[in-house]
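Aim 2, interim progress: modelling of the magnesium ion-bound target.
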Amino acid sequence: MTMTPLVPGATIGVLGGGQLGRMLAVTARQMGYRIVVLDPSARCPTAQVSDGVVVGALDDLDAARHLAKQVDVITLDTEHVPATILAELETIVPVRPGASVLRTIQDRLVQKEFLDRIGMPQAAWAPVGDATELEAALAKVGRPAILKVRRAGYDGKGQVRIEPDADAPAQLARLRGELAVAEEVVNFTREISVILARGLGGEIQIYPIAENAHRRHILHTTRAPAAMADAQRTRAHAVAVAVAEALGHVGVMAVEMFELADGQLLVNEIAPRTHNSGHYTYGACATSQFEQHLRAVCGLPLGDPRALTGAVMVNLIGDLWAAGPPAWHHVLARPEARLHLYGKDAPAPGRKMGHIVLLDDDTERSLATAEGLISVLTPRS
Ligand SMILES: Nc1ncnc2c1ncn2[C@@H]1O[C@H](COP(=O)(O)OP(=O)(O)OP(=O)(O)O)[C@@H](O)[C@H]1O
Ligand SMILES: [Mg+2]
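Predicted structure of the complex, ligand included:
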């Protein structure tokens, strides 16, 4: 692995052209790097702000090789690129994070086994291959339970809940024969995420902890820095650092956690990339998560993750477009508001279309402002 830093002028390849790649590309180009993206759509959010696009599926090895030959390093917009493809690409150009990291993360069962192996606390879980295994799994995790497909889930897709009196095999059938895991339903007091970056030399920088609220399994708001006792923050940091080091991760990584009433922290899942709950860093922190990720994958020194202000992020979901484009003047009229739109041309319900960041130390007030904005942007039915 080359340790020579990639300086401005170098070309970054991105596998997947969603909003994370887009914000990485905006930052990379600002700093004088070139960006080439692989995505099935030539008009994907990242391609709109890139120097080049290779059109192809994320599991198309020929297309991925074509990208690899044009770039100095490859990184990812999504953890759902098959690790086998990444292993092939590693023979051509550095891939950061590497194939071994993705192999551990992209299958929920392998990820949970990894967390158990390194002694990280998580909710009770069990594998579910078929109806027979389901019974044993529910006996272990109890009811209610959540079934999650092992591969390719996001924003709660590929998840079903099994209530105490539900027909469990019928719920499993909704996953269409996909291999799954069952999880106990955690009665958390809040959800947090620890976002950090690990550089090529193993150095780590940690962002202020984010406190997250979900709606219909999709992230709704993030507030940061989360109010937290020093000792608890130290414990959360230790978990995330242990995960990043055990993985040998390079780049930004998020560890989603459930916080329980007694202070226990359970790992929900690991995202080996920039994260929706880190969007607040773009505007609120000295170095955004996108610049930090770029620095890590280029082998540069990491930047300062310090928050310069408190912040609240609220996601803009496709439902807001049901009656046409939302009335943005409500957002643009607020001096503390930063509007981010991802350039997606098909606003489907539940689809992440953009977000707003409110920059203000009074995050309680900003949470109220965020709800007010969502309310005025929601079409009247
Ligand atoms: N075992 C659980 N107990 C209680 N709530 C849960 C559990 N698992 C998931 N949830 C809720 O659903 C949300 C989404 O779950 P999870 O993070 O597993 O989904 P995902 O589809 O991978 O989403 P994403 O990748 O967008 O974070 C969690 O943030 C949490 O609010
Ligand atoms: Mg999640």
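DSSP finds twelve helices and 17 strands in the chain. The longest strand covers residues 190-198.
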